[in-house]
Amino acid sequence: MTTTVELLDALSEQIRSCRLCKLGESRTNAVPGEGGAQAKVMFIGEAPGADEDEQGRPFVGRAGKLLRKLIEHIDLEDGEYFIGNILKCRPPGNRDPEPLEVEACKPWLFAQIAVVKPRVVMPLGRFAMTLLLGPKLQIGKVRGTVIERDGQVFMPTYHPAAILRSPRYQKVIVADFEKLARLILELEP
Length: 189
Ligand code: URA
Fold this sequence. Notes:
Layout lengths: L3 H13 L6 H4 L7 E2 L5 E5 L4 H6 L6 H12 L7 E5 L13 H18 L3 E4 L2 H8 L5 H4 L4 E3 L2 E3 L6 H5 L3 H18 L3
Parallel strand pairs: 2-3, 2-4, 4-6
Antiparallel strand pairs: 1-3, 5-6
Bound molecules: uracil.
Uracil binds next to α4.
């Protein structure tokens, strides 16, 4: 029988050679995401930046350091979480993703979520939240709350890069991660 690790690896392989949109021509490396195939939580950002494009790994730049500190703060261990993005390839110059790119790329993320079946998906920032939960929600209003869609539980928060722009975000993001930790325990099967 195929294991979840094999399924997730097979998806990563396909993503690395994806040519479904024009970002496949400009990228250095696609960034499928990484983490446990049976992760309890999936953290989903917007798109790879320069560091991620260079290394083929998600959240390895300045915002990534913050994300990894937040994950450490709530004592999640390797294998208990997955880090990924809506877009798997870097938009040139970090411009905003275009609708066609998002349309082409989002089936990859949905397939990853379907394989991992996390207890919680945490969209990081407005862009990921809008794609996963629809355009009507405002991140400032729903961050740190539990939202259920089609049997999947979500808890959005701000993108950790917000802390780099304004340190006042740190307190709320830390509080949301602490809520996330409690939610993961509550949802223990
Ligand atoms: N920001 C994101 O949204 N994703 C990354 O992988 C890195 C920075």
